[in-house]
Amino acid sequence: MTSTGIDNWPAPARLTVGIVSGGRVGTALGEALESAGHVVGAVAATSKANIDRVKQRLPESEIAPVPRVVGMSELLIVSVPDDELESIVTEIAVSGELRPGTIVAHTAGAHGVEVLAPLIELGATPLALHPAMTFVGSPEDTEHLRSACFGITAADEVGYAIAQALVLEMGGEPVRVREEARSLYHAALAHGANHLVALICDAVATLRIALAGQELPGQEPIDNRPGGLPEHLLAPLVTAALRNVLELGPAALTGPVARGDAQTVAAHLEALGEADPGVAEGYRAMARRAAHYSTAPVADVIAELDES
């Protein structure tokens, strides 16, 4: 049964896929596309880590230079960091290997299809397929695609139809993003995911300081290894907070700012300032944002933040 509820559609055409390059995202997409019946013919990979990853997870694919990958592809996935995309597009264009009609899809979140203009001039069908997911380089990355949304941008309705079909085949959910909104879309995702990692790392580091030497009998000594007591303490709290805010929005806000408790905020800032001034600065910035979403009177809290 398809996601549309129609179970008698013809099988999608099988495409020969090329990937530039074999990093975390490209390899995961390659695996997902192969699971959907496509064939990853070749992957451009140069670093040892990428070569090893491709050999392990796409063992039937040839590891080849970019021009060969381009020349044999019906669907070319360009999966490189955002700041490398333009140079790779230029390299593909000057290679002379791109065939008219090739579907070229990049995975950079901050770009739409305009960045593919040199390839559009050569007859490519341009797509932006950005999986809104974090990738750590493990096989589980591919499984995570099945629960991910993809920000898709195309040049026309035909392109959108192709993009939607590819995303659905990989098990994801397509979400249209306007060309001019790509940077804002990407900023929102980076703010929510990347800065969440920094926030949790700060909280864990602070707990390590607060709890050091206080271990109960049978508890492991607190050190810098992940997965210890600070992480164990935080996990249920932050998991519940994340679930609540996604379900309830700003109504999920709790704590001293939500209560308008300036005295506690001041005590927090003093303690954090002694432990790590950088964490204190992060707390101050996020407390201001929390005050923005609070329904309680927070004038005293804001005054405390201004004075500290």
Automatic annotation (TrEMBL):
InterPro entries attached to this UniProt entry: 6-PGluconate_DH-like_C_sf (IPR008927), DUF2520 (IPR018931), NAD(P)-bd_dom_sf (IPR036291), OxRdtase/DH_put_Rossmann_dom (IPR019665), TM1727-like_C_sf (IPR037108)
Residue intervals of the DUF2520 domain: 149-289
One Pfam family it belongs to: Rossmann-like
Domain Putative oxidoreductase/dehydrogenase Rossmann-like span(s) in chain numbering: 11-131
Domain of life: Bacteria
UniProt cross-references to PANTHER family, sorted A to Z: CONSERVED HYPOTHETICAL ALANINE AND LEUCINE RICH PROTEIN (PTHR40459)
Protein's name in the database: Oxidoreductase
Source organism of the structure: Gordonia jinhuaensis
